[in-house]
Amino acid sequence: MSHTPTRRGVMVGTVAFAIIPALRILPAKAAPAIHDIRIRNFRFDPEHITVRLGDILRWTNLDLAQHTATATKSKGKSTDKSRGKSAGKSAGKNGWDTGKIAKNASARITVFTDMATDYVCLFHPNMKGTITFETP
Ligand SMILES: [Cu+2]
To answer: Which of 39, 23, 51, 26 shows the shortest CA–CA distance to 98?
Structure first.
């Protein structure tokens, strides 16, 4: 047995580096789901959705008025006293915002770790929606 690196060893290493990034791209289980939320009559429909990391939330505005989907509150960790002050009105780094969604337009947000789970429409704060993470 030789202890010097062989050409074969170098090639195996190269192949491994080529495969590992490809595996990361492949979904572990199912492909990311797209969750459609219709905005209709000044309501999010459905108001409550259950998602997994990497899923896509897609809001479509069927009203004449413009709407947004804008995070208001951090995930459960917001009760942590060290973070409590920044949670609430501002969702901080866990925040997200679709921006204005015009009539018949849609906007997407990809589900990310610790994303805020409560949201409203900025123009109509009585429009509320919630997101729950599916437990693995
Ligand atoms: Cu609105």
So the answer is: 39
Cα 11 to middle of ligand 1, angstroms: 57
Average pLDDT for runs of 10 along the chain of length 136:
53 56 59 95 98 97 98 57 42 90 98 95 97 87
Backbone region of residue 114 per phi and psi (left: phi > 0; alpha: psi in -120 to 50; beta: other values)? left
63 Cα–ligand 1 center, Å: 9
Q: Answer yes or no: is 24 within a domain.
A: no
Cβ 32 vs Cβ 56: under 8 Å: yes
- Whole-number Å distance, alpha carbon 57 to ligand 1 midpoint, is 17
Q: Residue 123 sits in which domain range?
A: 34-133
Amino acid letter at 109? I
Q: Kindly tell me the burial class for residue 82, based on how many C-beta atoms sit within 10 Å of its own C-beta (0-12, 13-18, 19 or more).
A: exposed
Quote the CA–CA distance of 128 and 136 in Å, as a whole number.
26
Q: What is the CATH number for 74?
A: 2.60.40.420
Query: Would you mind telling me the total number of residues written for the chain in this entry?
Result: 136
